[in-house]
Amino acid sequence: MDNSTIAAISTPHGVGGIAVIRVSGNNAAEICDRIFKGRERLCEVPTHTVHYGFIVGPDGEKLDEVLVTVMRAPRTFTREDVVEISTHGGYVASKRVLEALFEAGAVPAAAGEFTKRAFLNGRIDLTQAEAVIDIINAKTDLAQKNALSQAEGQLKSRIDALRRRLVALAAAMQVSIDYPDEDLEELTPQQIEAQLMDIHRDISRLADSAPRGKILRDGIKTAIIGRPNVGKSSLLNYLAMEERAIVTDIAGTTRDVIEETVDLNGVPLRLLDTAGIRETDDKIELLGVERSLKYIDEAELILLVLDSASGLCEKDRELLAKTEGKRRIVLVNKTDLGSSFTLDGAIYISAKTGEGMDILADRIKQIYSLGEIGPDSITLTNERQLCALLRARDAVSRALDSLGRGLAQDFAALDINDAVYALGEIDGKTVSEDIVTSIFHSFCVGK
Ligand SMILES: Nc1nc2c(ncn2[C@@H]2O[C@H](COP(=O)(O)OP(=O)(O)OP(=O)(O)O)[C@@H](O)[C@H]2O)c(=O)[nH]1
Ligand SMILES: [Mg+2]
Question: For the chain, what is the total number of helices (H) and then of strands (E)?
């Protein structure tokens, strides 16, 4: 274990009311005492208390007026002694105090090192550490709520429970392998099989939540497609609640793809407003149209916009056919101007009045099963967790397979061990040093 005492600015760089510098390690209080002038010595104050004073440089010069919070192990984020110094905001004050800390013996914290120490010291598991990044990066309420419940250990306890069941099963099998003649409690092959099938099903359920987790984290990549002037940019602006894209009554206004992340009743969408699709000789517009067509293929969801006032034309029919079979919602816009046609399954909206937007949100929630996200639903939120979970499920399948073929239970027991190992990669019980390092690298310094 690393004995160094680390320090970093934990608040964003830039101008603000205060900045917080976090110091963690065995010597946190001693190091801070070397540069802190207050009524008491930080080494001697009770834990979890706040102290007023000044940070002074080597020549006695006052660097900043501060509040210092002293928190002694183990009731801290890292489970080490932690001191947090609140300095004045802005770049200069916090940077000078940080430099003074380095001169007094602290070393710069690497990206994610505070959280990494919390993990290495057993305060949080890997799923919780990853949830910390997700909380920081959350773009919508729903994503933040989900990350928070993961940070509180919902996923951790689910993985724990699966592991306990597998270990208990392996132990019961071991009894019959090692002491076949003894009268110990034993499971019949049928019982083992039934339990494994239960576990397999529960792992699958958890794995099925992964696409939802990805949506919460990244948003649904949604292309707004349609011929010119139907109101694509108006729709983007309405949902973004700002004049993000230029809107005019001239067909062919949008030439390039405009991207904006919006929160539609809790559904995170990465909206792409595209150029209206039509035949054109304009070189720039043509490039835009090519991009629109490309996004029909690339997007995860297509909002095909039609114009209720101008009626259905040949180009609309072409686009309806082109997007058939893709994840698509047809929107008939400008219903405030009256409606000239009806179309099965289409949602009638107005980008001007906001009519129909709730229905649109509900439809998307339905398509992506987002309605089910409640306070206690658990969602995997990253690829790493999913890969390990699928490896665990494969191992359980192999165990089931060898039991089914009547092979000796030793084989199934080995597969169950593999499954336990794979689960351990999710929460970090059996994870390699490399993986840990790469996970914490994606953090920012100070976290
Ligand atoms: N009344 C009414 N007018 C709308 C509505 N949506 C858009 N418009 C008008 O329709 C015209 C075209 O809107 P845009 O949002 O620029 O259409 P677009 O599909 O982005 O057009 P291009 O960028 O040229 O492809 C503008 O004059 C808008 O004010 C609506 O729901 N109701
Ligand atoms: Mg436009």
Answer: 15, 13
Q: 321 CA distance to ligand 1 centroid (A)?
A: 23
**Peptide bond just before 228 cis, omega within 30 deg:** no
Ligand 1: nearest atom to the Cα of 337 = 1
Give ranges for CATH 3.30.1360.120 in the chain: 6-109
3-state secondary structure of 316: helix
| Ligand 1 atom with least separation from CA of 273 | 20
* Cα–chain center distance at 222: 19
C-alpha 261 to ligand 1 mean position (Å)? 20
Where are the CATH 1.20.120.430 domain residues in the chain?
A: 141-209+379-430
Q: List, for residues 30-56, the tens digit of each pLDDT value.
A: 999 999 999 999 999 999 999 999 999
Q: Quick one: fold of 141-209+379-430? A: Four Helix Bundle (Hemerythrin (Met), subunit A) (1.20.120)
Domain(s) of CATH 3.40.50.300: residues in the chain: 219-367
- Chain centroid to Cα 11, Å, comes to 20
pLDDT in tens, 183-230: 656 778 888 999 999 999 999 999 988 888 888 888 899 999 999 999
Ligand 1 centroid, distance to 319 Cα (angstroms): 18
Class at the top of the CATH hierarchy for domain 219-367: alpha beta
Buried b (16+ CB within 10 A) or exposed e, 352-389: eeebbbeebbbbbbeebebeebeeeebbbbbebbbebb
Nearest atom, ligand 1, residue 234 CA: 15
What residue ranges line ligand 1, CB within 6 angstroms?
A: 226, 228-234, 247-249, 251-254, 275-276, 333-334, 336-337, 350-352
Mutate to test the pocket of ligand 1, among 224, 234, 333, 347 (most ligand atoms within 8 A of CB): 234
- pLDDT, tens digit (0-9, with 9 covering 90-100), for 249-279: 999 999 999 999 898 887 889 999 999 999 9
**In angstroms, what is the span from residue 274 Cα to ligand 2's centroid?**
7
- Contact in structure between 402 and 305 (CB atoms under 8 Å): no
Distance 45 CA to ligand 2 centre (A): 63
Predicted TM-score (pTM) of the model is 0.69
Considering only CA atoms, which of 65, 75, 70, 79 is closest in space to residue 19? 65
At the second CATH level, the architecture of 6-109 is 2-Layer Sandwich (3.30)
